[in-house]
Amino acid sequence: VLFAACELGVFDLLAEAPGPLAVAAVAAGVGASYHAMERLLDACVSLKLLTVETRGGQAFYGNTEMSRVYLSRISPTSQCSMLLYMARTTYHCWGHLAQAVREGKNQYLQTFGVPAEDLFTAIYRSEGERVQFMQALREVWSMNGRSVLTAFDLSLFPLVCDLGGDFFKDHLPEADLYILARILHDWADGRCSQLLERVYRSCKPGGAILVIESLLDEDRRGPLLTQLYSLNMLVQTEGQERTPSHFHALLSSAGFRDFQFKKTGAIYDAILARK
Ligand SMILES: C[S@@+](CC[C@H](N)C(=O)[O-])C[C@H]1O[C@@H](n2cnc3c(N)ncnc32)[C@H](O)[C@@H]1O
User: Fold this and answer.
1) Along the 275 residues of the chain, how does pLDDT read in single tens digits?
2) ipTM of the complex
3) Which of the chain's ends, N or C, has fewer CB atoms near its CB within 10 Å?
4) 120 C-beta closer than 6 A to ligand 1
């Protein structure tokens, strides 16, 4: 329901309207069937995605505060691109979850007919898909960027490296701080170790690595969102979400020390380790 309402532009139309709109106006505004739109809007109301008020026997629909802030494209904290990416890509991969659990691997071949030996060739299987994924990735930082970047005092590290090129093969520049946000969760332990060892070798003495990921509780009993992300990593990548001690083991075997982690209380958490 959420995906369809986003895809149809219902939240955008309501965000730009001077006030709540009747079904006919919404259906005409987004080019949809009246009767079908009425059902979608009513489901959105029950899901607390929309408000409804009745005047003169007619229902008028508007955005809830949450929809206004996160679901309309004109909002600076919009999450629309991520929702569209989830609707068009992630959701389809989840349809093969049972098979992913049987095989222990992602479902690009079954879902989209593309082999996933080279993971990001499958993820970026068309230019449109690459652009959609990039736009989607950016959005979360409008909500969660501040909490991960203020988790530690980063003023000690003047030269920061955002890894580009092919980080498994290309030369990595020397820097005081390397930020790996949502990178390690794409990869199995062996590939993570390979990358972390490369980062360690390039890192200046006294420098650090900042890993930004959604951390599982040490006993793996939660948070539910992170457990679901970990299943998402199964259907879409070669990786998983990890506990702090799992990250500690990976980082310390690459040479890093002084491991610290901070749970931010939001989706993504932060880990800092020093060379
Ligand atoms: C889940 S995204 C995270 C992107 C960004 N750090 C963020 O948090 O928004 C993983 C990123 O890793 C990049 N990537 C995958 N393989 C790579 C490689 N071999 N070298 C460099 N970047 C790579 C992808 O292009 C993608 O942008």
Assistant:
1) 999 999 999 999 999 999 999 999 999 999 999 999 999 999 999 999 999 999 999 999 999 999 999 999 999 999 999 999 999 999 999 999 999 999 999 999 999 999 888 899 989 989 999 999 999 999 999 989 999 999 999 999 999 999 889 999 999 999 999 999 999 999 999 999 999 999 999 999 999 999 999 999 999 999 999 999 999 999 999 999 999 999 999 999 999 999 999 999 999 999 999 99
2) 0.99
3) N
4) yes
Domain count, the chain: 3
Measure the CA–CA gap between 150 and 141, rounded to whole angstroms: 13
Tokens 């299943």 belong to 231
CA angle 183, 253, 247 (to 5 degrees): 45
Query: 208 with 151, same domain?
Result: yes
| Nearest alpha carbon, ligand 1 atom 12 | 183
In a domain, 9, yes or no: yes
Instruction: Give Cα separations from 118 to 101, 108, 109, 124 (angstroms).
Output: 20, 11, 12, 10
Q: Tokens 């989607």 map to which residue? A: 136
Choose which residue among 137, 179, 199, 240 to substitute to test ligand 1 binding: the one with the highest number of ligand atoms within 8 A of its C-beta.
137
Are residues 167 and 122 part of one domain? no
Asked about 185 being catalytic, the answer comes back as yes
Residue 155 inside a domain? The answer is yes
Q: Could you list the residue range(s) of the whole structural domain that residue 243 is in?
A: 144-274
